Amino acid sequence: MVMDKKDIYEHLAKIYLDASLKKQEKSKKYSRSIKYVVLAAMVFLFALSASVFYSILKKKPFDSEVSLVLLPDVAKINYHFDPARKEIFSLNLNKLDLTRYSTLRFFVKKANYNNVISLRVEFTNNYKEKSEIYFKDLPARWQECTLNLSDFKHISDWSQMSNLAFAIEEWNVQEKRGIVYIDNVRVLK
Q1: DSSP characters for the chain?
Q2: pTM, whole model, 2 decimals?
Q3: Is the domain covering 67-188 a CATH 1.10.3430.10 domain?
Q4: What residues contact 30, with CB distance under 8 A and at least 6 apart?
Q5: 15 — phi, psi (to 5°)?
Q6: DSSP string for 91-118
Q7: What are the tens digits of pLDDT across the range 9-38?
Q8: Band of pLDDT at residue 77, cut at 50, 70 and 90
Q9: Which of 86, 112, 161, 167 would be 93's cystine partner, CB 3.0–4.6 Å?
Q10: Cα separation, 146 vs 102, whole angstroms
Q11: Do 167 and 87 meet the contact criterion of CB atoms below 8 Å apart?
Q12: What percent of the chain has pLDDT over 70?
């Protein structure tokens, strides 16, 4: 069988068209699969973001207020009341302005479960005004302590604070030696 040029071109065109139709069908199948995968991913992401949003609304956010961290690391008050009468851990506030803050928060725990300890928390400003609050019966596991700055009654000016101290006093402990840990000391608006 002898083919002329026209027959050859038609034969090649038919082969090309058949191949391109098959290719289009494959690409339609792949594009449908890709659409389903993208749609499933979008539904999954929507459900995930909705559940995260719901959990945020359901729970009270941790420190949703603005806070100023005064001590990010764990402080250790190791006391031994043989000659000493008190042990103090002190933070130099360096004339820090706390007028816009309302709360002091920190985590605290004692090392010995059986020991009964009270912790004195004391603020001092640059005008030598001092005020303290006692946090009684420290826990043996980490517990967050929240103190309102308005409860420090003898501080009239919070604009230039000089010192924040945590003290263990001999007369406020059951045993004469022990350890108290303080962590994440911060003030909140």
Answers
A1: ----HHHHHHHHHHHHHHHHHHHHHHHHHHHHHHHHHHHHHHHHHHHHHHHHHHHHHHSPPTT-S-EEEEE-S-EEEEEETTT-SEEEEEEEEEEE--TT--EEEEEEEES-TT--B-EEEEEEETT--EEEEEE-S--SS-EEEEEEGGG-TT----SSEEEEEEEEEGGGBSSSEEEEEEEEEEEE-
A2: 0.59
A3: no
A4: none
A5: -60, -45
A6: EEEEEE--TT--EEEEEEEES-TT--B-
A7: 677 667 766 666 666 665 555 566 677 666
A8: confident
A9: 161
A10: 10
A11: yes
A12: 64
Q: Look-up: residue for tokens 């038609």? A: 10
Q: Note the pLDDT tens digit of each residue in 57-74.
A: 555 455 455 666 776 677
> Token pair of 51, please?
């559940």
Nearest Cα residue to 125 out of 161, 95, 94: 161
CB 184 within 8 A of CB 145: no
Beta carbons within 8 Å of 129's beta carbon, 6+ residues apart: 154, 155, 156, 157
Tokens standing for 84? 């000493």
What residues pair up with 163 in beta bridges, in sequence order? 92, 124
Q: Which amino acid is at 25?
A: E
Beta strand pairing call for 177-188 and 67-71 = antiparallel
